[in-house]
């Protein structure tokens, strides 16, 4: 009888080492481990993953399967429910590190079976609900970025100088200061100063239009 750890590593912040350490800290002595990397728990069934397939082949009656939580098995209600029940039919005990849950197919008491099956359904549904919530949050983040990009397009290109810098450049030009001296004093590039010098009205209009568009947005 072996204690087998299955890990699904879906982000750079998750590692098999981290999940193994959690299992050992919870008191499990791991004999074997299987880990799938970069595999979606939503779209790819456990039995279709490279290490998931090996896991199904390796587990035997009396073995204990350890997972961080049921979402490591998957984030699809039917897949998670079916996988847990299939393991139990084979005589495998499923244990979770988080919440210390145990799913054992050995019980024959109808009340205990009903409670166990209801809990499996609840946890599988929670795993899928979490995945859907994450997807919605990610979609919202993408939409906000797109909206921000549209705002920037609507406003046009922001002038490369502020009102204070513009006025300082004009004053120093009126005093016949050199371009290099103005650049050093204002922090602007020589090209920007040349543009202001050659078209003061246009430069001031750009500042005014930008300010007006920002207020309107």
What do these coordinates show?
With 217 residues, the protein is of the alpha/beta class. The chain has two domains: 3-130, Resolvase, N-terminal catalytic domain (Rossmann fold), CATH 3.40.50.1390; 163-216, Arc Repressor Mutant, subunit A, CATH 1.10.10. 57% of the residues lie in helices and 11% in strands. It is built from eight helices and five strands. The protein has helices at 16-25, 50-58, 77-89, 110-155, 163-174, 179-186, 190-198, 200-216, and strands at residues 3-9, 32-37, 64-67, 93-96, 102-103. Strands 2-1-3-4-5 form a five-stranded mixed beta sheet, with helices on both faces. α3 links the parallel β3 and β4. α3 runs antiparallel to α4 (110-155). Mean pLDDT is 82; it is low at 150-155.
Distance between the termini: 67 Å
Q: Helical amount among residues, as a percent range?
A: 55-70%
CATH fold field value of the largest domain: Rossmann fold
The profile of the biggest β sheet is: 5 strands, mixed
State the low-pLDDT regions, or none: 150-155
């Amino acid at each position: 009888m072996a204690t087998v750890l299955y890990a699904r590593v879906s982000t750079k912040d998750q590692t098999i080492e981290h999940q193994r350490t959690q299992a050992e800290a919870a008191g499990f002595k791991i004999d074997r481990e299987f880990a799938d990397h970069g595999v979606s728990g939503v779209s790819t069934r456990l039995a279709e993953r490279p290490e998931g397939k090996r896991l199904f082949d390796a587990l035997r009656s009396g073995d204990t399967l350890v997972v961080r939580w049921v979402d490591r098995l998957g984030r699809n209600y039917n897949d998670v429910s079916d996988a847990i029940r299939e393991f139990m039919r084979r005589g495998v005990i499923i244990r979770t590190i988080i919440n210390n849950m145990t799913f054992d197919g050995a019980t024959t008491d109808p009340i205990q079976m009903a409670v166990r099956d209801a809990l499996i359904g609840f946890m599988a549904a929670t795993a899928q609900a979490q995945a859907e919530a994450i997807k919605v949050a990610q979609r919202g983040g993408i939409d906000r970025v797109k909206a921000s990009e549209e705002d920037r397009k609507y406003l046009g290109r922001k002038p490369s100088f502020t009102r204070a810098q513009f006025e300082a450049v004009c004053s120093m030009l009126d005093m016949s200061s050199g371009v290099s001296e103005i650049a050093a004093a204002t922090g602007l590039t020589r090209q920007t100063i040349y543009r202001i010098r050659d078209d003061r009205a246009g430069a001031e209009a750009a500042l005014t239009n930008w300010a007006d568009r920002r207020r309107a947005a």
